Amino acid sequence: MARRPIPPDxxxxxxxxWYDRHRRHLPWRAERGRRSDPYRVWLSEIxxxxxxxxxxGPYFLRFLExxxxxxxxxxxxxxxxxxxxxxxxxxxxxxNLHRCARVVTEEHGGRFPDDExxxxxxxxxxxxxxxxxxxxAFDRPATVVDGNVERVVARLYAxxxxxxxxxxxxxxxxxxxxxxxxxxxxxxxxxxLGALICVPSRPNCAICPVISFCAVGGKKKAGxxxxxxxxKTRPLRQGVVFWVERADGAVLLRRRAEAGxxxxxxxxxxxxxxxxAWTTDxxxxxxxxxxxxxxxxxxxSHGFTHFELELGVLRTKVGRNKLDGVWVRPDELGRHALxxxxxxxxxxxxxxxxPERAAERRLREIS
Length: 367
Ligand code: SF4
Known about the structure:
Blueprint: H1 8-22, H2 38-48, H3 53-66, H4 70-75, H5 78-85, H6 92-107, H7 116-120, H8 127-138, H9 147-156, H10 167-177, H11 183-196, E1 236-246, E2 251-255, E3 266-267, H12 280-284, E4 294-303, E5 308-318, E6 326-328, H13 340-348, H14 358-366
Parallel strand pairs: 1-5
Antiparallel strand pairs: 2-3, 2-6, 4-5
Helix pairs in contact: 1-11, 2-3, 2-8, 8-11, 9-10, 9-11
The structure holds iron/sulfur cluster.
């Protein structure tokens, strides 16, 4: 079936008129008529990768309070950044954030490149993020396509191709709609439309500013777009954690290797994670020491993007020894960069760990 063309100028006019009245007020957004600060745009876009606006808000404000400019962030240690990042997940983003701050400060005089190609050459900035920064911070006519925009465009054109195969086509269609004037506002308007009105399951077409351009607007089937290929089930991996406790109650932590999943974060020692279940003998061969290990009832479960993980726990008590790692009292675990998974392990062992933010610590120290 021939696709109904959408006149880009008329579409942009309708959308931007709505945006000027109903835009979201987000901590990283410039007020109307003001230029956006590239540092804030970059910081928010990195945090928003795979994370919601609601979750990101407090993290963004804390980062900005602690590191108000890119050179201040570049001067921080990776550990400080990882610790402040705790709870946002996908820690490779935090490591790239830190590297990127250093590259911009040391190689670009503290100023972000103002086009997509220059931005994409920086650590942690891919196709989407470079387009978002170029459009929002520098008003370049870049095509910014996130999940919200994909949904809106799929509905505007009633696109039958399922995601993810539809991505290149959605991108082309979104590019055709992007205007030369106010491209940064247009990008944010599309995102806001998707977040506020053209929401995933029940779009509110009755108040949509672009319903006259939409192939499914006001119809019951609008919520059925974008079409999606059936989800694959995630494989299950398994592992065993070693909870090593000293006579004074301190437990053993070690740092994960820099490269790979949860790289550079702290963890309780564990076996590798694999799809095959571990026998006790196999697990003990991976233990940090020979000891009298007791099995702890229950499992700790956690979902990663590409697999589900289940961890059993073995515990032991030790006297003085020379094990590699850091000994930490359970009530001080929050001071370390522990990923959510390891906080779940601690909870399983009866210790709730609340990430202790450096800002809160500083406040306590001075009060
Ligand atoms: Fe989305 Fe409905 Fe607007 Fe179409 S009319 S863009 S389906 S909210």
